[in-house]
Amino acid sequence: xxxxxxxxxxxxxxxxxxxxxxxxxxxxxxxxxxxxxxxxxxxxxxxxxxxxxxxxxxxxxxxxxxxxxxxxxxxxxxxxxxxxxxxxxxxxxxxxxxxxxxxxxxxxxxxxxxxxxxxxxxxxxxxxxxxxxxxxxxxxxxxxxxxxxxxxxxxxxxxxxxxxxxxxxxxxxxxxxxxxxxxxxxxxxxxxxxxxxxxxxxxxxxxxxxxxxxxxxxxxxxxxxxxxxxxxxxxxxxxxxxxxxxxxxxxxxxxxxxxxxxxxxxxxxxxxxxxxxxxxxxxxxxxxxxxxxxxxxxxxxxxxxxxxxxxxxxxxxxxxxxxxxxxxxxxxxxxxxxxxxxxxxxxxxxxxxxxxxxxxxxxxxxxxxxxxxxxxxxxxxxxxxxxxxxxxx
Length: 393
Ligand SMILES: NC(=O)c1ccc[n+]([C@@H]2O[C@H](COP(=O)([O-])OP(=O)(O)OC[C@H]3O[C@@H](n4cnc5c(N)ncnc54)[C@H](O)[C@@H]3O)[C@@H](O)[C@H]2O)c1
Known about the structure:
The protein is an alpha/beta fold and 393 residues long. It has 14 helices and 13 strands.
């Protein structure tokens, strides 16, 4: 079939196998080029990445495997291809990762299924035992719209809404470049509670408990989960909204995991980047487009793999304890949050209109990153060529 991006309501519903392979390979090459710097550090040897197939989780798996040479087990929820339709990008990314890892002589196992379930935790524990692995690092990088509680079977759904009032803000449609005013109704108490159930730290703690009880953690292991803070202008919809509540719960969970003695737990605050869900969050496409433009103008733009490379080499495994902010979190978002960058972004956010959008914001950069996350707009791929949805192994 000829594969062109199929974007419906700002969600891309297909993927290009060849483009995904090139993108995964590019990230691996970024890390391979830094291998000498990794070799000087005492990094993790056995790593579990929960949410391993795309975004920050995939970058974490690549950095620990191809940088430190660690054995990696990955868990993600992806859909494979059929005769009629392509798989999800993460399905191709996982396959590409496993093939590259095998070729490099690295141990890797990937599990597709629900990370929130007890069955998945048992599968990972069984594989760790079979391979003789004890995890010294567990990366928790889930982003999910829903969670089935393993005890009760109740399905919880996360929402991105403000708390205590309506949110109104400027936003842009990255596909039409049309600016508009978004309005999002405030969340109910039930929606807040459900979002915390899905995106808070409960499942992270359950993973650590299960791994610890099964004896598949190394002595003094580390675990890290990812979060975002962002600028004040996004707080009503993000940090002070439903997702922010879930992230506060995640941060409190880090303290609980550390307190339990199961692992030293960190939350790392990462930069805003374009991932599969970015285009549907109000204000984020406009903020990220302006941020990209400002950071690219200053030569300080980073993508997932750059962020995670710095997190592992300069923070978690630098040889000394990572610097923490006043809330006890690791920060790799300091370039995004720098005062000069934020002042410029805020000024552009306030004054941007359709006449100067292209000058003030990198909407095209946003759109291209979004397409690349699905294997489209990748250099070197012939998008007119007939491809099988199964791609090449
Ligand atoms: N994207 C950003 O701008 C940004 C910035 C800072 C922090 N973060 C945080 O980083 C983390 C990862 O986000 P991302 O943007 O890389 O997301 P992503 O959508 O690219 O990746 C999410 C991963 O979770 C997996 N997943 C989802 N539901 C699952 C389930 N039920 N079982 C197993 N796997 C499941 C997916 O398969 C995928 O591997 C999130 O906690 C997010 O809040 C993201």
